[in-house]
Amino acid sequence: MKYNLNDIVMLKKIHPCGNDKFEIIRLGIDIKIKCIRCGHVIMLPRVEFNKKIKKVINNENEKEEN
Ligand SMILES: [Zn+2]
After folding, report:
1. What sign for the dihedral angle of Cα 60, 33, 29, 51?
2. What is the pTM (predicted TM-score) of this model?
3. What is the per-residue pLDDT across 24-48, written as a single tens digit (0 to 9) for each?
4. Which domain holds residue 31?
């Protein structure tokens, strides 16, 4: 699945605050996501993140890629 910095992603697991959308605030070997409802920041290894991600909701305009 493709995602970029500042994208909103939907995770399979819902955060205790009742929200399932998170913003990607850092992309590296580890990925940092922020719960857009309560602001809680979670850091995950990329492999782990890839398993938990359900859907990517692009924040910005979609770019055409070939
Ligand atoms: Zn939350």
Report:
1. negative
2. 0.84
3. 999 999 999 999 999 999 999 999 9
4. 8-57
